[in-house]
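Table S2 (text version). Query chain:
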Amino acid sequence: MALIESSIRMDSLIDVPDVPGLIFRGFQGETDYPKMLAVISGSKNADKIERTDTLEDVANNYAHLTNCDPYQDMIFAEVNGVVVGYGRVSWRIDQDGQWLGFLIGFLLPDWRWKGIGRRMLRFGEQRLSQIANQLRQEGTLERSTVCFYETNQEQGEKDKEILLTREGYQPVRYDFSMERSLADPVYEIPMPAGLEVRLVQPEHYRSIWEASNEAFRDHWGYVEETEEDFQRWLAEPTFDPKLWQVAWDGDQVAGMVLNFVNLAENQEYQRKRGYTENISVRRPWRRRGLARALLTRSLKMFQELGMTEAALRVDTENLSGALNLYESVGFRVVNRGATYRKQFSIDRTK
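Corresponding structure-token output:
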């Protein structure tokens, strides 16, 4: 698809808050990465979000964006030359044919409730509407396509929740963060007959990635992964195939748990946690106890590595019964997140 040029000029924005020294600007390249990181780091405690982003994380993410040109699709808020917030948009089409425009944004706590966050959000909406309308004009989107603005909100992000509600967004799906103490016994479940776990080799990465995408394709909100997503995944600092539990049936990947340990996070929050994530089983191998077997193997592995707790995230309405499975092996809910959406018409920018 051709680059979608933005006609939204920062100096033409309306509803700009009357804050002395405030300006809005676009992305200026890699020199913005440290400024973005400072905003993320300065926001997480107020929002009760645990994260340990580095410059390398930011650079890896922005090196592998999908349907996003940061020079067109970002807004920065500066006060007296200091970046206090920023927002970015991107888009995908989900498995139901709905067009989803994703918005992310960060704003330092001292600069909230001054209209800055609202202005950044509305810029994102304007930009996404512009993109959707151009796609319609190109024929990529049908006029009848259902379009949504979408963003996520963690339980501690109360300021964001209030802003989204005031701007017409509604929660449409919830997910849980769950934890399990590894001080409690782990009862390992045998693998189903005919399946085996093998040590992952580099030549397996692509097959595992494709099997994971296939397994998640029928989940709510799924969007097709791209080559940029694959390359970003390979470069993530927590990418550690030695920890994975991948079940094979001959040369076919049947299911997996792509475990990882975030060393920086464990150090900052003074804990020993392993994540049991990307728990998935392909359709032909479901209902045989494979997910439970791989999960308990993962918990046992983390115990042997000296971890004291495990964590994961789950869609509360997962059709495969994942929540019940996780509770049955000792995980408990510790936090809740939500996906917020607002529907719009792609004709609004005619």
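Notes on Table S2: The chain has a mean pLDDT of 94. The CA atoms of residues 234 and 292 lie 26 Å apart.
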